[in-house]
Amino acid sequence: MRHLLGISAYYHDSAAALLRDGEILAAAQEERFTRRKNDDRFPVHAARYCLAEAGIQADQLDGVVFYDKPIPKFARFLETCVGVAPQGLTTFLRFTPAWLSSKLNVKAEIREELGGMAESVPVLFTEHHQAHAASAFFPSPFPSAAILTVDGVGEYATTTIGKGNGSRLEMIQEQRFPHSLGLLYSAFTAYCGFRVNSGEYKLMGLAPYGKPTYLESIRSQLIDLRDDGSFRLNLDYFDFLRGFRMTNARFDQLFGGSPRRPDQRIEARHADLARSIQELTEEVMLRLAREAHRVTGEDRLCMAGGVALNCVANGRIQREGPFREIWIQPAAGDAGGALGAALAVWHGKGGIRNPSRSGDTMRGALLGPEFGDVAVEKALREHGAIFERVTDEEVDRRVVEWLAREKVIGWFQGRMEFGPRALGSRSILGDPRSVRMQSQMNLRVKFRESFRPFAPAVLREQVADLFDLSVDSPYMLLVAPVLERHRITGPDGAAPGSESGEDLVERVNRPRSTLPAITHVDWSARIQTVSAEHHPRFERLLRRWYEVTGCPALVNTSFNVRGEPIVCTPDDAYRCFVNSEMDHLVIGNHVLDRAAQPHRPVQQFDRDQD
Ligand SMILES: [Fe+2]
Description:
Largest sheet: 9 strands, mixed
CATH class of the largest domain: Alpha Beta
Strand content: 15-25%
Number of strands: 21
Helix content: 25-40%
Bound molecules: fe (ii) ion
Number of helices: 20
């Protein structure tokens, strides 16, 4: 099977990925093309992009693979409706038409969306967690490994432990719906007023402000957790079986009141809830990791599924878990299922795997579209933009100089990232040493007030000079503490801003280290390590910055404004640049100064607690 197209769609964050002879050629999320955040529609634009990248038509594919099995999923849905009758009937009537019109008709829909693709191209299906497991293991650098997948729910499975060896993938254990760590975390996300399926990061970022005061209530009332990491949820407290709300009145009573509405203030109680559910999640993940180690006998671990994006839990598995090494799929959520589905079929049909000790096969997750000089200049001219084209060295020289003067830079280079994080191709950069960078970037560029610090991108060789981390974290999926010698300590010995009482945004803006823009209130940081091998262009800039300033890290946040997907094209980048207050934009070797642009609309600042 030479060319295989993987598809994930219809639930959250649709995506397409293309393999040629088992090699990952292209992968992208649909939201980047349609500009609709977490777009869950059929990824027709992403699929077209993947085909164009390979230079083929849909009829030249050797197969299309969908990332889960619609029939078992529908059966689970029906069983759930029947299980909670009579309330389930409402859910059934509300959602069944959608199931019947597209979700169950995936085969026909795929053919139609791909431009009437011929019947000779087979449409195949994997199981949801098989796709996650394949996305975790096959691109990893390990010849064999334990595999842990944890998410909300696929067909039935919510957590699986498996083992990968060469081209073989074996699923060993699974935990089933409705007993789901992903859904439990999402229930707290919703209860604390954040959006399910995208607000989980915010809940994780809120946790260091709180105390684990609810941990015992969660343990005694909500979950029966066993030593091996398996558990049962007490369904008396949840409403997700009925499909309308995650939690119910009993849950409200246990945790001291009604759910927070998104426009309401974040109170100490919400931070305490965030901390409590975060600690429980870490405990479950550590137990699951130990169990995966025990049943597989492997000393390396691969992870995927939405919960594998919980980089605080990942950091603890890395530091405390029984594994020698871990590797996490950067598109660990359902977008990565598109890639996993194609990889599962390719290897299932006898494809040979050649893991490389020098790294994974994700190409630094730089798997999306790129734009040459002609396309960049055309887009800029259409906007009447004022720009200069300069050499590589001059780009670096200018950017370093601007950054040192506390300027904020839109940095657009090469292929777009696959997965939720910007990794130095579609990024906004700033100086992490600056005490005003955190609030400047939030208010002037992102149009939000955030209680979370930004993430640092740091030279791989220098990471241990700043953080308690000595391994690769190329995809910003590990959280580790800032080293003691760089910390600023309050009079009580704790981190400034860690005490409760004040406004969260005020608290996060208090300097806690020599890198205030990237240090959280517990002195932790969400780290991206940058190496020349994974990301040569970004590495060169960082190295130059290090040579000039002695600081090996930059603030790296995604190139977008609040509520929008990360930019994809030079056109998106220019629009975002002029609609925000970034000081400079760099697209390839084209440099732009905000003050010189003819068109600078002013966008209203929207006060929002993130
Ligand atoms: Fe999933």
